[in-house]
């Protein structure tokens, strides 16, 4: 009997580089990343089923009622959610799944799937975080303050996670996460008793 895959939930403040880290992890490992559903309109370069599942608000609300999401949230008038059945199917096949979601969503997943592996991506310093947000060049002075304040508040939730990984470089952050995943696979309580059969213990 094989073990299930691990649900790897990755969050972090804006500017911490979690998206870049996840992209690099997918290139180097056989992880599967969940595609979220959203009610917002697709951007020019986005493909339905690849970037997001684009659905109507009525359909989304219907899926909430039937508990079809592992987590969901409303952000700036649009809904975002992680389809449950797809994720569970991949986990049952033995493959590890990455969810790159915000803190609100991660805490929802933790309630319904406490055996998940929750990893928080941190910047090397608050100064570096500020530099990364500033260097995007897409922020006004007002939105920069808002984002930085929000990021500062988000970091206070790090204690809700199992691990914190400092993203000093993408390669280093990926190696840390890969090491965490390997270590978690070796935990006795994650082996579902596959090797610890009663008859073997009593011999």
N-to-C span: 22 Å
- SS class: alpha/beta
Total strand count, please? Answer: 9
Strand content: 15-25%
CATH class: Alpha Beta
Secondary structure tally, helices: 8
Residue share in helix: 40-55%
Radius of gyration: 19 Å
The global form is globular
Name given to the CATH homologous superfamily: P-loop containing nucleotide triphosphate hydrolases
Low-confidence stretches: none
Write out the strand line-up for the largest beta sheet, numbering strands in chain order.
2-7-1-8-9
Under CATH, the topology can be stated as Rossmann fold
Largest sheet: 5 strands, parallel
In round numbers, the mean pLDDT is 88
N-to-C series of helices and strands: EHEEEHEEHEHEHHEHH
Q: In total, how many domains does the architecture comprise?
A: 1
Please identify, by name, the CATH architecture.
3-Layer(aba) Sandwich
Task: Give me some keywords for this one.
4-stranded mixed beta sheet; Rossmann fold; 9 strands; 19% strand; 5-stranded parallel beta sheet; alpha/beta; 8 helices; 203 residues
Question: What is the topological layout?
Answer:
Layout: E1 7-11, H1 18-28, E2 32-33, E3 37-38, E4 53-54, H2 57-65, E5 69-75, E6 78-83, H3 84-92, E7 97-100, H4 103-112, E8 117-122, H5 126-135, H6 141-155, E9 163-166, H7 170-185, H8 198-202
Parallel strand pairs: 1-7, 1-8, 2-7, 3-4, 8-9
Antiparallel strand pairs: 3-6, 5-6
Helix pairs in contact: 1-7, 5-6
């Amino acid at each position: 009997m094989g073990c299930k895959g691990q649900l790897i939930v990755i969050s972090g403040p804006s500017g911490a580089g979690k998206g870049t880290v996840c992209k690099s992890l997918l290139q180097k490992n056989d992880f599967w990343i969940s595609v979220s559903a959203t009610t917002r309109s697709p951007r020019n370069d986005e493909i339905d089923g690849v970037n997001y599942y684009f659905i109507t608000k009525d359909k989304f609300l219907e899926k909430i009622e039937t508990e079809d999401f592992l987590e969901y949230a409303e952000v700036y008038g649009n809904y975002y959610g992680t389809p449950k059945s797809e994720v569970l199917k991949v986990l049952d096949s033995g493959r590890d799944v990455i969810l790159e979601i915000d803190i609100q969503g991660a805490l929802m997943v933790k309630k319904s799937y406490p055996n998940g592996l929750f990893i928080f991506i941190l910047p090397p310093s608050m100064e570096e975080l500020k530099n990364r947000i500033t260097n995007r060049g897409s922020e006004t002075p007002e939105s920069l303050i808002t984002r930085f304040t929000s990021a500062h508040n988000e970091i206070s939730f790090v204690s809700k996670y199992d691990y914190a990984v400092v993203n000093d470089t993408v390669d280093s952050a990926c190696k840390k996460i890969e090491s965490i995943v390997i270590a978690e696979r070796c935990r006795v309580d994650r082996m579902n008793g596959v090797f610890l059969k009663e008859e073997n213990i009593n011999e």
